[in-house]
Amino acid sequence: MSEKWVNRLSLLQLVAVALVVLAPVAWMVLSSFKPSSEVTAYPPKLFFSATLDNYRQLFSTTPFARYALNSFWVSTGSTLIGLLLGVPAGFAVSWSRITWPATVTLMARMAPGTLFLLPWYLMFSQVGLIGSLWALILTHAVITMPIVIWVLMPFFDAIPRSVFEAAQVDGCSAVRILMRIALPLVVPGLTVASILAFVYSWNYFQFALVLSNSDSKTLVAAAFNFIGEGATFWGALMAAATLIALPPLVLAFAVQRRLVSGLAIGAVKG
Amino acid sequence: MASVSFDRVVKCFGDVTVIPELSLEIPDGEFIVFVGPSGCGKTTLLRMIAGLERIDAGTLRIGDDIVNEVPPARRNIAMVFQDYALYPHMSVRQNLSFGLENQKLPAAEIARRVEQVAAMLQIEPYLNRRPKALSGGQRQRVAMGRAMVRQPRAFLFDEPLSNLDAKLRVDVRGEIKKLFHELRTTTVFVTHDQVEAMTMADRIVVLEKGIIQQVGTPAEVYNQPANLFVAGFIGTPTMNFMPLQRSGTRWRWGQRLLDLPLHGDAGGIGADAVLGLRPEHWAVAPESEQAFAMQVEITEPLGSDTFVFGKIEGQRIVARLGAEIPVTVGELLPLRPDLERAHLFDAVSGKALPRTVFSRP
Fold this sequence. Notes:
Distance between the termini of chain A: 34 Å
Number of domains of chain A: 1
Helix content of chain A: over 70%
CATH topology of the largest domain in chain B: Rossmann fold
Structural class of chain A: mainly alpha
Largest interface: A-B, 17 and 26 residues
Strand content of chain A: under 5%
Number of strands of chain B: 20
CATH architecture of chain A: Orthogonal Bundle
Strand content of chain B: 25-35%
Number of helices of chain A: 14
Shape of chain A: globular
Oligomer: heterodimer
Distance between the termini of chain B: 47 Å
Number of helices of chain B: 8
Largest sheet of chain A: none
Strand order of the largest sheet of chain B: 6-7-8-3-9-10
CATH superfamily of chain A: MetI-like
Order of helices and strands of chain A: HHHHHHHHHHHHHH
Largest sheet of chain B: 6 strands, mixed
CATH topology of chain A: MetI-like fold
CATH class of the largest domain in chain B: Alpha Beta
Number of strands of chain A: 0
Number of domains of chain B: 2
CATH class of chain A: Mainly Alpha
């Protein structure tokens, strides 16, 4: 096949993938600006008179800013805990080449969240943490820590072992090797890990649904309130969804290049 | 400064024993070279001294201390790695001072020592550069500087010249020799290159399969190899080995009886032996003499000498002749072995036979 045709087919493939990925996003964003009568219209209207009514309804009926702040604290807190635990763990796994602990964290990450919820609900009730942000921060560490470990492991693996050994011979303790040698060399990995952890925590829905109350709800859980038993406020829900999706998108775009090269390192390690 | 001593040291990786049981004394201030083919355990031994490999049995001492359980950080030894292992995110200056900061030396002392070593190795112009911005030779110097600045009890070198090009290797070899013979700090240098071993060492340790084959000065291992392995490993081109059969009190090589009489107590010597003769111990025979005719196959003129490869008695032989001697491929070259300089090895054990049993009285 000629190069011209390969290029054309590649373009076609890209358009197809972009359609699948972007269509729901476009629908969401457009719907958030539609009058409530047109949000659920089928076939969807591409041309309409844009309105901010949905956003007005969102801000007037919900404490959106507080939920946003909750989300921010939960994601930031759980990302920090994830880094605090995951960075030394990832380093230790890479250093010792004993990988089962990393696999265990991955299994915890892949297990359905509902598995954890009942024991956690009981545990956090016992200590009176249901409805506090701490319950969410701590539980979201289950999501963030494996991400940090698994993103950083190939970065640590990529550092020549002799560099660590040179530091050992140079009189360096393990903790100091981590802080002075390993960490400065995996800064791109730290960025990727932090952003992924933050975004996954930000988007996570299940734990907040059960372990929070109306004061400590995160954005994602709060948005669920628009789906009522009687009526669902699709317009406001789309407005909320659009705003919720914004921070991860902005973050991803801001560090796009680093993110891609960081994710690729696992593939071409060494 | 300190001695290093291995006492019946054993090392295994899983089921594989890489060092069966090894004892060796390295006196304070000696420049000792471990040499052997890859997989002979030389780097493992070095890493055991550094504390980077555990010791499965036996005792390792540095100075008077048993260090089997002492972590690398507390052994006060310095190591130069094959890939230099410089800290990529630190400047040359930081690379040099890092080990001293770990020792919590005062800043003024650190600066003084770094300047001193930088001057000694002529790396002052690059002190603020990162390793990435240095050439291979410069990185090598920084790696050496990082070791020297620590003023350790011993220096360990793990094939530090193998990543340099040939010319630089010769220069650095000379420099290391000069520097470390001045410092007179115990130095263990690992290499698979027997030329490096010969040129640098006070003593050479020839290793194979984790077993010491011979320990001695470069002259000793070259002139009195303890066995076939050492004889074959040291020297380029490698020593010629010819199978001999005993015939009464003389030795026969193929159809030829050699002028190599057995005398003295030859009782323990078997019927078969191997004659070892270095390439330089062949000479062109005068026409009058009954000589060995070599069918010349290849010549390698080096300028100073010529290596001549060919067959005698159906066996491949290399001779090192003067460059002025004209040799053409295909000719029959009359050669004479200098049997006074020959080595005789037991064909079964490979051990060198004492010179007294075969050299002429």
